[in-house]
Amino acid sequence: MLKKSSLGQLQGKKNLLAFSAGVDSSALFFILLENNINFDIAIVDYNIREQSKKEVAYAKELAHTHNLKCHTLSVAKIDKNFEAHARETRYDFFEELIKEYNYENLLTAHHLGDRFEWMLMQFCKGAGCAELAGIQESTSRDNYTLLRPLLHLDKQELLSFLKEKKIKYFEDESNLDEDIKRNSFRHNYTSPLLKKYLSGIKKSFDYLDEDRASLIQDIDLQTLGNFAYFKSSQNSRNDIYVIDKYLKSQNHMLSASERELLKSKKSLIAGRKFIINQEHGFVFITPFVKTQKLSKEFKEKMRLLKIEPKLRGYLFENDDALKLIIQLLF
């Protein structure tokens, strides 16, 4: 069920599977076993469902049976903005494991339904071809590759695999809550459409990927700690795509309005978390640091160098980043 391209990226590598004991990750677990892929698993218990303890126990049981490491994290209950905070928590956990155990790939069990759901949500918010292509099978991060080997498969195909193999899995009842936007899209739009037009939707994503490849130029984004920069492609759509991709890796999603503003503004504070500055043929992305009491000498230096005021708070605290900007611009 895995593509040859996915197998090539997985074989002979240290792989970490983000596991939940649900349909998708349980299917991927056994598909990896069938293909003799070496991997370990990581599971997060958010302590909001009684069933989660059974899911963690099942993960440990599977790991013991198949001689794998099972990394677990139990977190305090998240009361506000659960989806965003839960995502940030689990990716922080995964990335700590990646550093500690030198994993090369992080595997998630996103499937075609997730990709289609994301596409429709972006379409309704306002998006272009690159954004509609959405979730990709492979995404390079700073020190690992994020792989989604099931992205070409529909959930019904995964369910059929589990049923045929008589594999145990758990159903998360929160997936039935249509007050959550993604669940509403799934139950009312993506699932019915996939059931009726599966082959056509798969083909459409093939075309979207081809279009995205022709539209989006690869850009070498560099980082120095939490300071990121790249040379502008002189194409705002292309630059915004790269900015968006980087910020996603930092657990921030650009809004449609922020994308629009980036087309006309050279400097933007995104989500009160990041400064994006487009100037002198470069794009700089730094954490947002409120300008505190800057020394007179520093203020004068910034004025003479014509450094964007919004960047100054961060640069005052990060001398290496300041030296690099001066080297790049002057």
Unreliable stretches: none
Shape: globular
Provide the CATH top-level class of the largest domain.
Answer: Alpha Beta
CATH homologous superfamily placement of the largest domain: HUPs
Q: Secondary-structure element sequence?
A: HEHEHEHEHHEEHHEEHHEEEHHH
Specify Rg, calculated over alpha carbons: 22 Å
Question: Average pLDDT, to the nearest integer?
Answer: 92
Indicate the proportion of strand residues.
5-15%
Structural class: alpha/beta
- Distance N to C terminus: 53 Å
Notes on the protein architecture:
With 330 residues, the protein is of the alpha/beta class. The protein folds into 2 domains: 4-204, HUPs (Rossmann fold); 222-329, no CATH class. The protein is built from 13 helices and 11 strands. The protein has a 6-stranded mixed beta sheet, sandwiched between helices. Helix 2 (23-34) links the parallel strand 1 and strand 2. It is globular, with a radius of gyration of 22 Å. The termini are far apart.
Quickly list its features:
single chain; 330 residues; alpha/beta; Rossmann fold; 6-stranded mixed β-sheet; 5-stranded antiparallel β-sheet; 13 helices; globular
Summarize this entry quickly.
With 330 residues, the protein is of the alpha/beta class. The protein contains 13 helices and 11 strands.
